[in-house]
Amino acid sequence: MNFQFVSPFLTSILNVLSTMASLAAKHGKPSYKTSATACGDVSGIIGMASEQAKGTLAVTFTEPVALEITKRMLGDELTEIDHTVIDMVGEITNMVTGGAKSLLSEKGYRFDMAIPSVISGKNHVIHHKSKVPVILVPFHTDAGDFFVEICFE
Amino acid sequence: MNFQFVSPFLTSILNVLSTMASLAAKHGKPSYKTSATACGDVSGIIGMASEQAKGTLAVTFTEPVALEITKRMLGDELTEIDHTVIDMVGEITNMVTGGAKSLLSEKGYRFDMAIPSVISGKNHVIHHKSKVPVILVPFHTDAGDFFVEICFE
Fold this sequence. Notes:
2 copies of one chain form a homodimer.
Chain A: H1 7-21, E1 26-27, E2 31-32, E3 39-49, E4 54-61, H2 63-74, H3 83-106, E5 112-113, E6 117-128, E7 135-141, E8 144-152
Antiparallel strand pairs in A: 1-7, 2-7, 3-4, 3-5, 3-6, 4-8, 7-8
Helix pairs in contact in A: 1-3, 2-3
């Protein structure tokens, strides 16, 4: 796993949340994901591929964080994960990956983005079938925590 | 949505299940996915991308079908979705996409595959954030039904 692939994603998610939702987030220490620990209620997931590399990004939110970001981005005070929240998570996943793609292309790394998917369902877990270790990064906000998982081969 | 992208995936999944699990499956009529109807317990999902096209494939199994395929592929009589089942779903997702990639390349369509992910969690739902409609294909086996969702832009 190449750590230089990780940093542009962290920069990008902090940018997106700050710009779109006026939400300050702080990331904890990245670690190798040893067990399926990032359990959440709504996740955005997107594949990245090129001839040189392939990877996947997943952003997993618990319900309170997803609702708070939706409120800050759209002004909607929702009480459960509905299509508005799902669209918002898809949009964030897309924007974060687009931002990272642009930062990585400056370093000479190029990839194409697949179509983002959003998973909903209480306490689901994402497992990446990668030959290399998955990097797990916890993020903290005043509304709660969320997780970013990145793998690149 | 281009229907000629769909048929190689259907051929490929029937091949994989027949070869690897000696399981005969029959697909129902493909339709546009209008609401999030493909609800299941374990799903494989993989992104595909190239300069010309981007897409996502998801295969969603209920627990009984996933356990039956695992039993037929590996001989393991399991009673719940564990890491063996999750690995098997990731492997099937990879093989189906690899098979479809090979069939599509014969037609002149090329894409790179991202890293497959597997989602576990009772009754989760996958939403594809595509600009084009998602094609939903139900499959029937003696062990139960499963669903394939394909979108390509």
